[in-house]
């Protein structure tokens, strides 16, 4: 702070002004000093205000919405921290920080930048996948939904099978949730899966609430085939007759033929009779005729 009295004394010593001039000099010195002090406070206050405004812009700005159909094979950016490569059909909705992908079919590859606070969920009919910072693939096809983790960690909840956590290199198949979906899966793996596995799949589908019509009839026919392949002839014959009694029965001739063979092999002539008669009425009685004559003639 300046010494006002010293300044005024110097003004008197430099000359011999009147008292009015000395008063004017003193007032001018005080005014300039006050202006410098005000300037020192205004500039820091302005800096603080700008910093607060910048912070408000970045932290209080409204979330950026994300909404798009996914289908092109080229990689697409979903905001600053998520990239996907889609070869199939799906859609994404939400914001850059919290989005949900509904995936209908095909393969979806996802890369999420870690430690950016991004919440991403991928949904199919069979599975829900949650991730924060990882890379993974979701493939939906006739076998269900397969989730494979390339790096990081994901949480998977299968509609049939519950929750699990997958680390890098791991994968999981979430099975179909509808009877039609299970039927497609069984038909797809029929040549490679064991009869025991197929029978479990068929029985699980027949227990679903939506099973009906042609789907139910075809599942019943597949159940007969798997029982025959398992060497369970008596059960297969009974299952064939259950399938034939269904109002939407499919492959009736094939079921009659299997039931006739199984009943005749077991020496059950009366059990075979309705199936032999049905095949005769269709004009389709074949090798069963010889076994039938031997069985009927020996009664």
Short structural summary:
The protein is an alpha+beta fold and 299 residues long. The protein has 9 helices and 11 strands.
Terminus-to-terminus distance: 132 Å
Order of helices and strands: HHEEEEEEEEEEEHHHHHHH
Mean pLDDT over the residues: 84
Which runs of at least 5 residues are low in confidence (pLDDT < 50)? Answer: 37-50, 52-59
Query: Which value, in Å, is the CA radius of gyration?
Result: 41 Å
CATH topology of the largest domain: Serine Threonine Protein Phosphatase 5, Tetratricopeptide repeat
- What is the general shape? rod-shaped
Question: How many E strands?
Answer: 11
Give your account of this protein's structure.
47% of the residues lie in helices and 26% in strands. It is rod-shaped, with a radius of gyration of 41 Å. The protein starts with a helix and ends with a helix. It folds into three domains: 4-60, no CATH class; 65-174, Jelly Rolls (Sandwich); 179-297, Tetratricopeptide repeat domain (Serine Threonine Protein Phosphatase 5, Tetratricopeptide repeat, Alpha Horseshoe), CATH 1.25.40.10. It has 299 residues and is an alpha+beta fold. Helix 1 packs antiparallel against helix 2 (19-60), helix 3 runs antiparallel to helix 4 and helix 6 (233-244) packs antiparallel against helix 7.
């Amino acid at each position: 702070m300046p010494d006002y009295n010293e300044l005024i004394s110097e003004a008197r010593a430099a000359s011999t002004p009147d008292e009015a001039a000395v008063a004017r000099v003193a007032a001018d010195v005080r005014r300039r000093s006050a202006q410098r002090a005000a300037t020192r406070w205004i500039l820091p206050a302005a800096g603080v205000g700008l910093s607060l405004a910048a912070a408000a812009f970045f932290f209080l700005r409204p979330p950026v919405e994300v909404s798009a159909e996914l289908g092109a094979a080229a990689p697409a950016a979903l905001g600053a921290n998520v990239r996907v490569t889609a070869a199939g059909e799906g859609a994404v909705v939400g914001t850059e920080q919290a989005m949900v992908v509904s995936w209908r079919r095909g393969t979806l590859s996802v890369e999420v930048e870690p430690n950016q606070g991004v919440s991403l969920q991928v949904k199919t009919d069979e599975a829900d996948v949650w991730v924060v910072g990882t890379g993974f693939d979701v493939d939906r096809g006739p076998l269900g939904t397969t989730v494979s983790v390339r790096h990081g960690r994901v949480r998977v909840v299968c509609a049939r099978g519950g929750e699990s956590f997958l680390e890098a290199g791991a994968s999981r198949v979430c099975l179909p949730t509808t009877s039609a979906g299970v039927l497609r899966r069984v038909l797809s793996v029929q040549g490679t899966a064991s009869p025991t596995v197929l029978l479990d799949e068929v029985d699980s589908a027949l227990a679903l609430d939506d099973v009906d019509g042609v789907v139910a009839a075809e599942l019943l026919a597949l159940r007969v085939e798997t029982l025959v392949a398992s060497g369970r002839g008596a059960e297969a014959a009974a299952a064939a007759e259950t399938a034939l009694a269904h109002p939407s029965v499919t492959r009736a001739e094939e079921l009659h033929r299997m039931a006739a063979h199984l009943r005749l092999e077991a020496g059950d002539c009366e059990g075979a009779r309705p199936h032999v008669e049905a095949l005769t009425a269709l004009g389709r009685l074949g090798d069963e005729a010889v076994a039938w004559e031997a069985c009927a003639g020996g009664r």
